[in-house]
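Morning run. Coffee first, then this:
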Amino acid sequence: MSRKLWALVPVKRLADSKTRLTPTLSARERRELTRRMYLHTLETLAQAGEKVCATLVVTADEEALALARARGVDTLIETGGGGLNAALRQGTLRVADRGGNAVLVLPIDLPGLAGSVLCEALDRLPEGAWWQSHRTTSAKGPTPWWSPPWA
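And here it is:
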């Protein structure tokens, strides 16, 4: 089975991000910083070309959704307010539904990440260094889980 890698980008509400910088930056400045880092992440992923089948942004923030959609990026409206783990769970379920079998979770707070570095890292991944998705059903509903392809 060939790797169908999706990038999964979880995004907090832009206005609620970077609260540890409150003593230094105003709410408006923190929001703008977060927005710029988010756009940098989307631009970096765009440079990965065919190494990444698709990018999926998971967020409850309307502006973040609009910015992704304007760039042709798949989006998923985060529901339930369960934080990062819930967003990743929702995202991995969507990736599996769309035929993806590997996920690269890329947070937006990597301002130094260059597209060339991301591409080099993806090129160096051995074929067996990925995980395939599965789905089970529990009392909580569908639950994604990942196993190595040799399992």
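The longest helix spans residues 27-46. Good start to the day.
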